[in-house]
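Entry type: protein chain
Record version: 2
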Amino acid sequence: QVQLVESGGGLVQAGGSLRLSCAASGRTFGSYAMGWFRQAPGKEREFVAAISWSGGSTYFADSVKGRFTISRDNAKNTLYLQMNSLKPEDTAVYYCAATYRTSPATMMRRYGYDYWGQGTQVTVSS
């Protein structure tokens, strides 16, 4: 079992940056692959980025590749999402998630995750 709490969201102008954090409970944080998803009003929750349990493998949605960076610090039980060159279309509630699965395919799907945080709002103004 794991509990997740996101933070770091806020309002930023287009072209700016934000760093999201996800604090995870438990002493087995390093055993979970982690992901970031986002959901805009009226839209489905979509995959943003994922990282393997060791941090050795990362995956990104095409829409954020080259702008976002996912990382984790297992010693601090924390997941990060560094978001640069933000665009208005990045506006959404961002959720972190954890899964014991290791398949890259499942890590890019919402149903592949077992635990979710409460979400943090990111708003990018033009």
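Comment: The chain has one helix and eleven strands.
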